[in-house]
Amino acid sequence: MVSKGGQQTLSDDVFARLRADILGGRLLPGRRLNYPELSSRYDVSVSVLRDALVRLSEQGLVRSVPHQGFVVTPVSREMLSELTDTRIELESLALRRAVAEGDLAWESRLVAAHNTLKRTPYTADGDHQRVDGDWAVTHAAFHEALLDGCTNRRLLQIALGLRDEAELYRRWSQPVGDEPSRDLISEHRALLDAALARDPDMAAATLSAHIRHTADLLLTAAERLDRDAAAPRPTSST
Length: 238
Fold this sequence. Notes:
Elements: H1 4-23, E1 32-33, H2 35-42, H3 46-58, E2 62-65, E3 69-72, H4 77-101, H5 104-118, E4 123-124, E5 127-131, H6 133-147, H7 153-167, H8 184-196, H9 200-230
Antiparallel strand pairs: 1-3, 2-3, 4-5
């Protein structure tokens, strides 16, 4: 019999593994999350899975669909536009609070997170079509550190949850940092400088532009994929 503490540990472990599989693209948007299949995959009971899926639904990574159970959150251009607007509003508010309320320990954590991000390669070794997993982790850590000075933990939790949901949309595109018009290193440096300067207006404006730029690139990538899918395929000559 699994104790209550053991059950919670299992739930935490499955939650982390499911979350990593969704954000890593191993469980794609729109996929139905079948209990028997997942129980076998993660070697846990249905009750443990249900706890983990409920927590993931609170983060926007999965959805409960009537008569189907849980599915990985589907993606669409309309949903991305709505999500982007919401992120800009809430993340900018959280960042304004962080700039006003963050202490010296927050500044130190932010500088350390930026240094780690700056030194982490963006694309996987030998594969410029795929974002490196370590970069994705350090990128998330930098943005979490950026907002972490906000003392309203409920606001912070919601803002970070929206960032997780937005990661699903990277499945639409090739890496969005290698475009000739984009300099991700400079964008993150500008965010750091505005935060350390304690300039809430500049910090919020810089973050909004950063979020909007990424969303625009993802929408462009989605349109390109739609055109490619609709284009007639050449027939082979015999």
